[in-house]
Amino acid sequence: MGIKGLQGFVATVCPDVCRMVDLREIAEKHRIDHPDFPPVIVVDAMSCVRYWYTPESWVCGGQWREYLAILEDFIKAFMAAGIKLVFYFDGVVEEKKRDEWIKRRFQNNKEIARIFQFIKTHRKQPGRGMFVVPSALPTFTRFALKSLGQKTVCTLQEADFEVAAYGLEHNCIGILGQDSDYLIYNTCPYFSIEKLRLDRLVTLMFSREHLCRALGLSLTHLPLFACLLGNDVVPERLLEGFWHKCLVTSPHKNNSYSRRANVILAVANYISKVPCSYSSLEHLKEMLPLGSDMTLLYRGVQSYLLPGQQSPWIPPNVTNCQTFSLQEQTAMCQDKEILQVAKEQHIRSENYTIFNILSSGETECSNSLEDERDTEIPGQALIYRPARQHIYSVLLESGKGGAYPLVKEWFVYFGNPLQQPELIQPVQPSVPGGTPNLKTLWFAKGPDVEKQRYSTFLACFHLQDGMEELQALEAPVAAFCCLLAYLMMQVSSLSLEDLNAFVAVILCLKGKSAAQLASLQLAQVDSRAVHLGAVFVRGLTTLLLANSACGFPFRMDDLMPWEMFDGKLFQEKYQQSHRGCSLEGLLEGNESLYAPFHNLKSFICKACTAKKRTIQSRPRGDGFITGTQQREFNPRFQQTHRSSFVPPYHNQMRGFLWRNPQPQGKK
């Protein structure tokens, strides 16, 4: 989160704290001083993703191939300068930050509602001023960077601490990010991603020493300074009275500055007069309404102390609590081998979310670009919950009497007040021969186990009967069919036109370059297609979760959005399909795609029919819908529609997109 207003204060009140630097020059100096150690920049990736995502289109579900190319160019620019990058991603929402996380989620909900209202009114994407990152962008960025050969770390605690610790321990030339906490940690220099000019490799560097000089403080003051301005440990609401007292006595008050700037100067003035000792903190009891919890300040200061660092503000009998061992001691999974493997995969960014579930029994999902006024499409959190319940069952062995421990979910969807986590009951999937235990799925070898992994994965999506057909397909296509079939089963309002659009996307995407997709122009943007794009991409993260739990029947690279989805292309196919476009038009005149198109549709329709779900035709034409009208559609779409697609199903899958060169061979 950082310290509210500190970076803005630096820019306006004491601009000497930051200066433009040439990263090539800094790297060259490092090579001269440390010839045996290449220059390294540690990257706070979570604060960078919104600056990395520069494709023009951002509402349609993500321009994933364009984004992948942008990341590749970013890496190449640093490689050309001989600079190695190490990327860090938040792997957990710490309990102390949950309230702030919830607050941000509700703020994001309001922003998303405004975006949908704009799209419905103007039939186009809003300007960059309303930009929100595409759903699941941080998750897929992590896997993208890994696929591009980069060292990618998923943290066990809040990322800023681990980033600062890595920078200090490995003598990095700097931290690249956008978080004012890096002005407080006593670590390597802090570079701004916002001000980075990639073509010249120049950016702003912030100096802690110059900040201290401007405020009349020393480096040891900075952690207490941050706490008394309000941070993730010490909430601002407890500090208002203290700020008022500081303002009254401050000699630096300037009416041309904002109130926040004057508060920063006043707090710095107060701290500069306090002796650097832990007994000094005792005097703050009179000024802060902390009640009996005087440990708040200790914990706040301590949160900035990196391994091996000490502070004069902390009593000698208080030890550094930045450790993860407590969570492991109380882990939901008691099998140490399983937990250790999950932890190692988590840190190396090889799995998705399962360590959080196995260790703390808790998981979360942030906002998605979903239209809360569209009552026909449930929240993605609810659509994929049955699949997650099966995945939880695979991960968590049942206890005595066959009972599973409950999983705590913090998932954002319309109507969820997020006052407490929802307690989710794991549900055993219907795996032929029974669900294998986790040790079998993760550690056993041989063709029989490979089959068990695949069938368990499919059972999480109610597709265990389609194993032979799916295994005949290329892995990304099989995964796509799995997700789309599940989606069509779960959401009764999805139509034949929606199905046609999705299938056309994966077929037409093959062979298209990032540049070709970037040049695609949309005459207008449909809000329902925006919503469906976000739901589909969130479904891909559910595939990642199932794959991680089931021992990786798929390569993670085969489950990535750039293999099977493009936001603008889906918008185009969705609008074409709902206008009654011919098959030739939908498939861009490529006759070789006709048979695969029908085969994939046939498989999905057969899977739905087995679950008593008939996919009906419901063309919407150009019927762009306002939010108030949309609520009235629900009863109308419950009526029976004559047009449906339930063709006789034959095993025609083997003629399309082979997994291997020999059609008759099994995986």
Automatic annotation (TrEMBL):
One GO cellular component term noted in the UniProt record for this chain: nucleus
Subcellular location: Nucleus
Gene Ontology BP, a term: fat cell differentiation
InterPro entries: Coact_PPARg (IPR026784), PIN-like_dom_sf (IPR029060)
Main location: nucleus
Keyword list, A-Z: Activator, Differentiation, Nucleus, Transcription, Transcription regulation
Function: Functions as a transactivator of PPARG and ESR1. Functions in adipogenesis through PPARG activation.
Annotated family: Belongs to the constitutive coactivator of PPAR-gamma family.
Subunit structure and binding partners: Interacts with ESR1 and RXRA. Interacts with PPARG; in a ligand-independent manner.
Name this polypeptide is given: Constitutive coactivator of peroxisome proliferator-activated receptor gamma
